[in-house]
Predict the structure of Phosphatidylglycerophosphatase B.
Amino acid sequence: MCTFIFLIQRSFILIFKPNNHRKWLSLIYVVIFFLLEIMIVSNNSFILGFDHSIQNILGSMVSPTNTKLFSTITFLGSPIMDVIYLLLIMFILFKRGKKDSSLWIGFILISGNVIAFLVKMTVRRQRPLGKIIPASGYSFPSGHVFGTTLVILALIFLVLPTIKKVSTRKTITGLLIIWLIIVAISRVYLRGHFPSDVIGSALLAGTWWECCELLYLRYYDSIAHLIDHKD
């Protein structure tokens, strides 16, 4: 098994370029996320006030038309759809010969869901009252926003670089960010999550993505060293 993994890694090319800012970015994400988590667990008055104010604004927008629209959006951004999107991205990259990037996304998908589940079971935050559509389980973090963020990061960093036209990449990136915001709003509108839940979910996904990049670069360097030493 170890030999098999070694042979696979030997055929890899470096997906991410070393970046001195990556460590600091990961640290910033981690600190902000844990501060938010602590505030949520301790029922901080600022977070409670922030959540209620956003909920009141979106609550004034409730209508049959908006509910149908946001229900459709929340379905398209659901965890199961995010898994399908990521598997599709994996397949496309694999068919294009980017096996390293394809397997990388698989690792992010599996490990990310484990991390999100562990955080959810640790915090055990109850969902908002008055849910417009049924939602079970705990509230923090949002699986919809977490998965959607990973999909968007995969597209931005692994797929969009294949597009040569810079303006096209920027346009698609902007649309993807808007989509993430819309999915987050849909979860709050439907009372499936608090606003702080969706913010924390995006932070958690970004944190895990950056940390996994660091792990990848560290592991890649170690494998390259072993290869050079053996050769």
